[in-house]
Write the structure tokens for this entry.
Amino acid sequence: MKGSPLEGLLRVWRAVPLKLVLLLVVLSLGLKNPDGRAEYYPFSNYPMYSQFDEQDYYLYIADQDGAPLPSKETFRITTPKIKKRFKSELGAVAKRLGVKKREVVGAELQAVGVTTLLTLDKPVLNHPRVLALTGLQLVYVDLRRGDGEIEATERTIASIPMRGGAR
Amino acid sequence: MRPKRWGALLQPPVVLYGRWETVLMRLCFSVLLWFNLPAFDKFPEQPTPVGLAAPPLGIDFTFVNDPATMAILKTWLLPFLVIYIAGYLRWLPLLYMLGLSLAVGTLKNSQHGEISHRFQIISMILMVQCGWHLVCAGRWLYARVSGRRYQFHHGWNVDRMEVFVSQSAIAAIYLTTAITKMIRSGGGWLWQIQNVGVDLQKTWGQDYYNTLSQDAPAWAIWIKDTVTTHPWVAVVIFGPGLLAEFGAVIGLYGRGKALLVGIALVVLHIGAITVMKLEFEQNIYCLLIFFVNVPFLSLAGLRWALARSRGRTQSLRSAK
């Protein structure tokens, strides 16, 4: 055994510092869910703020007239979470169609928007405006980096009917 | 004197944590777990299961969605926390604490792709601590059966290694974050950061539509506006954050380095909370416990205050 390649490897392995850190990093980057995302709780690759494009978007919820609703107070959900739901559904549709997420447009994008709106809980805010809701809209805000400024354009991509604050 | 080999030079030193210091660390960590275990009732299903809830295991964690069940589980948690803090048979309470945190965290992250990383650091620390104490229990059992002596090498002991594995888990999280930035940006993160203005506009927009109101300190508004009009400023402001994440492992090489790395990462998080609306309070608390080592600083402060008051009493007596 002495002087064998195995012994050499063992010596190198023993000399490697911070083995636990390395093991945890490898597992965090390597463990994946069936959908391909490295989010195998409690492991994660922590992808937030890892890529920056000249273009991005966010979503918000509006009433039937297009007036914004405070999502946290109305539906107990934050706008980033609405986007996460939207992105998850968008990814599934893109995969089914065999296209990139950005290439999902028209009726397919509208369907993704409707699915996202349908995942919202019943409004919890006991406010006359919420009780009188007759519809919900999902507004898509497109952001692009311009010359020393950020250009924002809004469009409604989906809507669902409501009655007395309920679907 | 024979010089040390490169392997030995890179090995982290044994930090001599005191008994009360580690007891205080466990107390602080237990308080953190207790107050951060969420009780919810809005996740009756696991529509997009992750981790242990995903196939092939497919474990159903929806039982923690019931507030009554969660109340019972939290009541049982209390005696386990006491045993854990006292330092007896730690593998047993840690198994319970880890199981509970995995159930809650996995269920929360199995909702329509809605991933939250806030509770992750607590589960990671519980996982490595549990693993370490199970190894210790196994070694102790083996020593009993084989009649050999149960001992640690190079000055390590159960408590010191418990702190070290916790720090390792924290460092691994930051190192993973930094590596992901490099992988996903194709190595050009520092160049791409010039587009951060778009992300900040998005984050602030999302924040506004949560409540239809916005409140931010003047310096955060200045950063947001400046990186939009002068993108290169973003490299200067956000670049050190990447260095701090990569450098998190340096904190494993002694108390002083842990303190510096801990402070740097806490500052990074405070900036991220204010400017990027990325709320990671749990990470801050874990850094304060295991890197900045508030338990040690508190004990040192207490000792200093006691010594000072004793000194005063003695000088008063001698003056009489």
In short: Chain B touches chain A through 72 residues (CB under 8 Å). The two ends of chain B are 56 Å apart (CA to CA). The mean pLDDT of chain B is 92. Chain B is about 70% helix and 0% strand.
